[in-house]
Design a protein that fits this description.
binds zinc ion; alpha+beta; five-stranded antiparallel beta sheet; six-stranded mixed beta sheet; elongated; 9 helices; 405 residues
Length: 405
């Protein structure tokens, strides 16, 4: 960080206080009620009128139980007439590992009193504190700005659901989006990977494994043969084909409700449920990886038969989790990001990521969106901490973006 005076006046102590406050709220993904309430209260305390703060109905469309919708805040423009609205966004949920975290300041960091036991939740309460601080400073300093929509999404960590199921018409016609969810304020994420999630039901037939194994059809064996084909074909783990790259993984193997597939050694296993995923920056390649799994399971099922020649059955379903995107380096949103980062004395660093972001859905909804960091570190681990220098830098950056001409 340069030692030069910051380009934007900012009540840093209040910003850090806010961050501690949000980090203290126990509200993991799918349980956003308490953080939604805390954010709405904090926004009103800094002068945002209650009628500017609403929750949408995205949670009624999210396939997993979710207590509230996305929080949407509209700040009317105070600058030039006809200025185009801009969107600031972040997610309000944290990963389940954060449950019960106790934040405390340690030098230029916020750490967890319970380090080694839970994660902290800097992912993504740092983003929440940046947005509320932006509202606070714009109001307090009476800074001219275009119309601003702020979006705090739910269920990012469990599948980008809040961003996926929002109604773009609720966002006030924003032409560009700035998402805060990451480590360094100077990093500009301009592209992210796409992913499929897929599910397989393998149906075999139970039989006594000692008395008449030939009468059974082993669903476990179908799984093993399918995995062998996938592995031999180079479709497992890191996948590289003709210069194209992606990844795949098998997650759950068991029953659909997470129990063990098969439970007795003397019974031929009649059912196995498998959950896996495929990822790539190339949308077509994601589908090809998923297709390779489907083929392997289908081939394997045909091979495993009982004594009368009846084969196993597989049902393979896949779902697009999110589409990859890549913004052009000369896109207006990228230019705005670069200029603002330079204004706060940093050097912009354009990057892509192998994880999915809410920005994947925003781009799909027609709002080109870049993502910056705000001090998260070692996320989703019990060593998580917040780098306060990066957090302050992100607060400055938000101000620079909101007040750019
Ligand atoms: Zn995050």
């Amino acid at each position: 960080m340069p030692a030069a005076a910051p380009a934007f006046a900012l009540d840093t102590a209040a910003a850090v206080e806010r961050l501690l406050r949000f980090l203290s709220v126990n509200a993991i993904t799918g349980h956003e009620g308490p953080i939604g309430k805390e954010l709405a209260a904090a926004l009103q305390e800094v002068g945002v009128p209650a009628k500017a703060i609403t929750f949408d109905d995205a949670h009624t469309r999210i396939p997993e139980p979710t207590p509230i919708g996305n929080l949407i805040v509209k700040l009317p423009g105070t600058g030039k007439k006809g200025a185009k609205p801009i969107l600031f966004m972040t997610h309000m949920d944290t990963v389940p590992l954060c449950a019960g975290a106790k934040p405390k300041i340690a030098g230029k960091r916020i750490v967890n009193e319970l380090e080694g036991t839970t994660a902290l939740g800097g992912d993504n309460r740092t983003g929440c504190a940046v947005l509320v601080t932006l509202a606070a400073e714009l109001i307090k300093q009476n800074l001219p700005h275009p119309p601003i929509t702020m979006l705090f999404t739910v269920r990012e960590e469990s599948g980008l659901f809040g961003a996926k199921h929002l109604n773009p018409a609720d966002l006030g016609g924003s032409a560009v989006g700035f998402n805060f969810d990451g480590r360094s304020a100077a990093d500009v994420i301009v592209g992210a990977i796409g992913a499929d999630r897929w599910f397989v039901d393998i149906r075999g037939k139970a039989a006594h494994a000692g008395v008449a194994p030939e009468k059974g059809i082993s669903a476990t064996m179908v799984l093993a043969l399918a995995m062998a084909e996938v592995y031999e074909g180079g479709w497992f783990g890191k996948v590289t084909k003709d210069g194209r790259e992606g990844t795949s993984n098998v997650g759950l193997v068991g029953t659909a409700d997470g129990k063990s597939a098969g439970d007795a050694t003397n019974v031929v296993t009649d059912f196995v449920h498998v959950k896996g995923e495929s990822r790539s920056h190339d949308a077509k390649f994601v589908r090809e990886i998923t297709a390779a799994y489907k083929t392997a399971f289908t081939n394997a099922a045909a091979k495993v038969k009982d004594h009368e020649g009846r084969a196993a059955k597989v049902k393979f379903t896949s779902r697009l989790d999110y589409v990859p995107f890549r913004l052009k380096s000369d896109a207006p949103v990228v230019k705005l990001a670069e200029v603002a980062i330079q204004k706060i004395g940093r050097t912009p660093n354009l990057r892509t990521t192998n994880g999915g972001l809410d920005a994947n859905w925003m781009v799909k909804h027609g709002i080109p969106t870049v993502t910056f960091g705000a001090g998260q570190n070692e996320i989703h681990t019990v060593k998580e901490f917040v780098d306060l220098r990066e957090f302050e830098s992100a607060c400055q950056l938000a101000l620079a973006l909101a007040t750019a001409e």
